[in-house]
Input
Amino acid sequence: MGPEERNRLTPIHEQPQTGRAVERACFVGVSACLGSVLVVLFVQLQVVSRQVRYEQQEIEELQNEIRNEQKGQIEQLSEQVQQEQSITAYQLAGTFTLLASLITMFHMTSHLRHFREPFIQRKILAILMMVPIYGITSFVSLVAPVLRGYVDIIKDFYESYVIYQFLSFLIAVLGKGSNNRDAVVDLLARHADHLKPPMKCLKCCFHEDPHESDRALASAVLLESQILAMQFVLVRPLTSLSSFVVDMLDEDNSMPTWDPRYPRFYIVMIQNVSVFCAFAGLLKFYHAVHEDIEWCRPWPKFLCIKGVVFMTFWQGLAISLLANAAEDKFGANDEDFDPREWTARIQDMLICVEMLFFSLAHFFTFPTDEWEEGYRPAESSARFGDKIALGDFVSDVKYVVGSRKSGNYHDEENGKILSPMSTSSIENGEVSDEGGGDLRLAVERGESC
Output
């Protein structure tokens, strides 16, 4: 083969290699372009994602600011509402406390102006002083909760003191205005048949065996009543001090009241037992001598004392139970709800309001004219219904119903019934001897009408 033929055949053999090179160059170019596009897209995607994250952060920050602002506005509005409610409660409690104190002070000055039985009336003054002490201490506790523990000690001490003063008041009335214990024992000995034997646990305190004589039994019953009332004077301040110490130690209010694992439960139980014993002693002594002191109306006085002391105590327990029940049912997720604080505020508010009504009750149950010379209680056999003409209304109803059923007419003055035949005979001028006076009376009434 010559050189010319060989030169002519060479491009034919090299043509595939050239096409492959072109294809490779095109592939590399396309790959480079695609890689560049991908890099550009990746960079743009990163920029966009970063911008989106930045904008999301701004949106979240803006939402948080809006939430915080709304929350702050809600809290501020709630605080304003609470402040307005507190101011209203303070004004209401202060008004009732002021009125109760003024009425009590006027009542006390009336007793001082008519101080005819000093030994008895000074005990009445001690009892009357309970209303302003209760009202003022409760108002201070409501306005300044920080001072609640201190003023509660004062209130509880005076509460126990009044219980014993009421027993001393009854003893002084029985002793004719003196501290003559023998006269009271002699009076109780007359009712020995109705006296219940004293508690056996107090046997060591009796000077004589109660079963020896009626006088020994009367002396034991009197001493028992004094011991049961006096124990409340000693126990009540001690339990108040114990509660104050427990409150000081329990700063985060983590100790529940009705859990036997904590001391508050036992303090409340001791108070309950002490209150029950004092109440039992007063009631036993009252039932023994109520006939001898009926002239000074001891039962309304006893109800006033029991209402202020015992009813407020049981009222506090009832409110505490309601608060704990409300916490278990509704306030488990409410961090601002404190059942003991809520109980204390409601109790203070109710006491301030109730003292006004107790001061009015004291004004009528402890009058000054009871201690004047020659005082005699007003005897009135009329019932409450008679004072508002209830008996007259019932009589008229009986008259109307009876006349519709039987056609008879009732003579209210003589208590007799007239029949229609009798009235017809009256119209005809015929009057029988039987019931003639009643018939003439009926005729006269008909003519007058």
